[in-house]
């Protein structure tokens, strides 16, 4: 499944392979699930730490069968710097998710971003800036249907929608909300969020229909609905993220925002409901292999002592690169113990074999146990400079982002976003 990229890493100590075929596959799978709704790739937090400059050129290549125009018309990010970076690579709509700061308004407008609006007060600020530079600012109304983070409360959303009429330089192109517990199927709270959003979308559409039928009602400021609202056809309602898509795809509305699923990663190691392909492989190298005697302790804090003499390999990656410190030697790390090579602890892969991590992970280096058999080690071509897979596949063996997340008692987003600055991204 993964393309080989071996030639490129001659000088790298740790690198992340980003497999574009898998990302494109995942986009097609998601698009199939949501039918006519749009897919909005979420590239916030610098594309979850992978780099907007790496991910955006991949996702804009996506075409549906028989289509020549790109599938993706809109992407989402979270701050003005990300908008500026994305704008240098992408001509479509760039939605700022969450909250815009007042200080960000000028650069967001200059980049033609779509701003989130949760109050009349903020709308007035955007209006002021937009008027000054004689621009129409695109806005999406952010509604809190039960997330408890940002947005106009759903019960006040229709009223805000109507208030937006007064701003002649604002153009409402979308209304959205966010689910707080989409990971749980058939969750009562999620279902009530969906119901609240459905009701709001109907109320807004009813209102738009009535206003269009009457030829565009005049507001206090003499501005017609046609100026302020882009109209039902172009008003995007969106609610779901990746987990929402797995469990509540009936609520896809007009668009779905997906981040983590682009990379074939699920929030946790739970069965996802879409056949996604993992797109990331994290690899490092062996710096040295040494035979250490029984009774010798390995690493800081002397947390692990070899029970038998063994070959210990030191890898050129540590917690500064995103290997979770908390996973140091977690669960069975003894090659002759029950939870050894085949155990469920923190392992790495090479030549289709699993090797346990020994002792504490340090900032730049991590020790693994290759076992006592030199012939076996040589037969696998394990020597200084050899490649080790931290996340990804090696023959029949696989270690996933979700495996790390489970061991760390965290979630996949944390693992991907925690990869260090030294990790080189290589698009394959
Ligand atoms: C508002 C909003 N929508 C969509 C997403 C994308 O989430 P996911 O990566 O689970 O698809 C996020 C990410 O946290 C978000 O904050």
Strand-helix topology:
Layout: E1 14-18, H1 20-34, E2 38-41, H2 44-48, H3 52-59, E3 74-77, H4 80-87, E4 93-96, H5 105-110, E5 114-117, H6 120-132, E6 137-144, E7 152-153, H7 157-163, E8 170-176, H8 188-213, H9 225-228, E9 236-238, H10 242-247, E10 255-258, E11 280-292, E12 297-298, E13 304-305, E14 310-315, E15 347-350, E16 353-358, E17 366-371, H11 374-379, E18 387-394, E19 397-399, H12 401-408, H13 412-417, E20 424-427
Parallel strand pairs: 1-20, 2-10, 3-4, 5-6, 6-7, 6-8, 8-9
Antiparallel strand pairs: 1-11, 11-14, 11-18, 12-13, 14-17, 15-16, 16-17, 18-19
Residues 42, 97, 178, 241-243, 257-261 line the site of pyridoxal-5'-phosphate.
- Known CATH architecture of the largest domain: Alpha-Beta Barrel
Count of the domains? 2
Largest sheet: 9 strands, mixed
Count of strand segments: 20
Tags for this entry?
nine-stranded mixed beta sheet, 2 domains, 428 residues, binds pyridoxal-5'-phosphate, Lyase, Ornithine Decarboxylase, Chain A, domain 1, TIM Barrel, alpha/beta
């Amino acid at each position: 499944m993964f393309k080989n990229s071996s030639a490129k890493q001659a000088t790298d100590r740790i690198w992340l392979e980003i497999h574009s075929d898998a990302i494109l596959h995942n986009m097609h799978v998601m698009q199939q699930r949501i039918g006519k709704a749009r897919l909005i790739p979420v590239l916030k937090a610098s594309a979850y730490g992978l780099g907007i400059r790496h991910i955006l050129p991949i996702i804009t290549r996506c075409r549906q069968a028989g289509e020549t125009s790109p599938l993706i018309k809109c992407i989402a990010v979270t701050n003005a710097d990300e908008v500026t970076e994305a704008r240098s690579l992408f001509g479509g709509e760039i939605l700022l998710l969450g909250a815009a700061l007042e200080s960000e308004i000028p650069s967001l407008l200059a980049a033609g971003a779509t701003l989130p609006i949760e109050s009349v007060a903020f709308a007035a600020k955007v209006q002021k800036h937009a008027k000054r530079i004689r621009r129409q600012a695109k806005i999406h109304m952010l509604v809190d249907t039960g997330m408890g983070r940002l947005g106009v409360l759903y019960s006040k959303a229709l009223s805000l929608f109507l208030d937006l009429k007064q701003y002649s330089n604002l153009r409402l192109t979308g209304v959205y909300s966010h689910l707080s517990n989409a990971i749980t199927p058939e969750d009562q709270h999620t279902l009530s969020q969906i119901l609240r959003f459905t009701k709001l979308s109907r109320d807004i559409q009813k209102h738009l229909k009535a206003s269009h039928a009457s030829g565009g009602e005049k507001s206090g400021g003499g501005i017609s609905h046609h100026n302020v609202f882009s109209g039902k056809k172009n008003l995007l309602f969106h609610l779901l993220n990746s987990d929402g898509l797995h469990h509540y795809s009936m609520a896809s509305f007009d668009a779905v925002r997906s981040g983590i699923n682009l990379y074939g990663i699920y929030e946790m190691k739970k069965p996802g409901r879409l056949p996604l392909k993992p797109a990331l492989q994290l690899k490092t190298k062996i710096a040295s292999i040494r035979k250490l005697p029984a009774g010798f302790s390995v690493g800081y804090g002397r947390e692990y002592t070899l029970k038998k003499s063994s070959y210990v390999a030191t890898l050129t990656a540590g917690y500064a690169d995103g290997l979770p410190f908390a996973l140091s030697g977690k669960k069975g790390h003894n090659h002759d113990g029950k939870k050894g090579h085949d155990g469920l602890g923190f392992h790495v892969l090479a030549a289709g074999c699993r090797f346990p991590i020994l002792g504490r992970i340090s900032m730049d280096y991590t020790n693994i146990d290759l076992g006592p058999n030199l012939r076996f080690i040589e037969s696998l071509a394990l020597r200084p400079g050899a490649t080790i897979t931290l996340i990804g596949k090696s023959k029949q063996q696989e270690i996933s982002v979700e495996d790390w997340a489970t061991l760390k008692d965290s979630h996949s987003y944390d693992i991907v976003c925690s990869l260090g600055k030294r990790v080189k991204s290589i698009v394959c």
